Amino acid sequence: MKKHWSILVLTSAISLCSHAATPPSAQDFIAGSEQIKATYQQHLLSLPPFKLGHYAIRMYRQTGDSSYQTGIWVDTARVASNLNRIANELYSPSLIDQASKDIDKRYQNSDPVKESLRKKTLQQYPEYTELAVNLIGSMARADELGLKHIQDDKLRALLNHYDFANYATDPDMIKAWAAQLSNQVYWLKQLGVQDIVGEYISAFKKTYPDHLDAQLTDQQYANKIYGLTHIIIAASGYYQHSINEKDYQWVYDYFRSNIDTIIARTKEDVIAESGIVFLLAGLNDDPALIKTQRHILKSIDPKHNMVLSTTGSADISKGEHRNVLSAILLNWQGTNSSVNIQQSPHLFPTLPYGLVAK
């Protein structure tokens, strides 16, 4: 009897190990995505405007769920407010300079290394946050939604005072703001203001040559990967259009060769974006993608039903970025370019002051 019991225990253990080793299925990935979405659905309207808009636009593109309409409108109002302020208060380089005074001392970031790098760049380019983060970002979002500001010509005239190549090709800027610069060079191209994508990519490659990866700190390695993912994501118009792998073969080759290192050295939001890069190119069965999906699925905390921060925080607002990306990665529904007033007027029953249809 004792021998029989031992055999039974051994058989059960083998069975459990075998089950544990079974790779997750597509349904497991979908279930993980739904866990995250259910968590955020409960807290959606508690998110601050920027986070709410970021989440709602991406989730609407993936799901078409009307519950995200409020979030889209809130983001539209945020954009209008930014552009109204700049058009009426910061409409010249001298006014931008005044508003940007001592920005290097005022700038804060939760990551002290990132904060130090960015403060250094803001000493040389104090106008960068108002010009690039606020103005270009808001104009591009309005354009993405099929809108423009009522003083669009005035805002474009302000942009034309600056050569953005000065920021986008500066190695120190790339080391401090890689993902942001990736966004901004594509936004400038989208707006028809300046096409410096090629110059930026060339400078990016020189700043982060692949053969020196091992010499980078984890923070700088993550900045490099984040910059790479945003080249692809920005080129897609943020999940609006598919990507042709051949147009960015160097990026895809790099990710395939280095995906294990990316998973080991970067945080979950960067890992999720690294997988989404493959989805945008229709490479839904790529082994590199599947590795990111498995990692993110394992990262979902069963108690909080979300991907926690590296410190174990379950803060809904601070975790919005990594969790919306994780939800998209685990249940990709394809690209969607219909979130604009021309194709989906029902999303914009009224427009906040300052914005009109293009």
Distance between the termini: 82 Å
What is the averaged pLDDT score?
93
Cα gyration radius (Å): 22 Å
Secondary structure class reads mainly alpha
| Low-confidence parts | 1-20
Q: What is the spatial order of strands in the main beta sheet?
A: 1-4
> What is the subunit organization of this protein?
single chain
**Major beta-sheet overview:** 2 strands, antiparallel
Organism: Vibrio tetraodonis subsp. pristinus
Protein name: DUF3541 domain-containing protein
Signal peptide: 1-20
Pfam family, one: DUF3541
Descriptive notes:
This protein is mostly helical and 358 residues long. It has one domain (32-357). It is built from 17 helices and four strands. The protein has helices at residues 2-21, 26-43, 49-63, 69-89, 93-99, 103-106, 112-124, 128-144, 152-159, 165-168, 171-191, 197-207, 218-235, 249-265, 268-280, 287-299, 320-330, and strands spanning 147-149, 300-301, 306-307, 355-357. α14 (249-265) runs parallel beside α16.
Brief characterization of the structure:
The protein has 358 residues and is mostly helical. The protein is built from 17 helices and four strands.
Summarize the SSE layout with pairings:
Elements (H helix, E strand, L loop, with lengths): L1 H20 L4 H18 L5 H15 L5 H21 L3 H7 L3 H4 L5 H13 L3 H17 L2 E3 L2 H8 L5 H4 L2 H21 L5 H11 L10 H18 L13 H17 L2 H13 L6 H13 E2 L4 E2 L12 H11 L24 E3 L1
Antiparallel strand pairs: 1-4, 2-3
Helix pairs in contact: 2-17, 3-4, 3-17, 4-8, 7-11, 8-11, 11-12, 11-13, 13-15, 14-15, 14-16, 15-16, 15-17
Structure keywords:
mainly alpha, two-stranded antiparallel ribbon, 4 strands, disordered N terminus
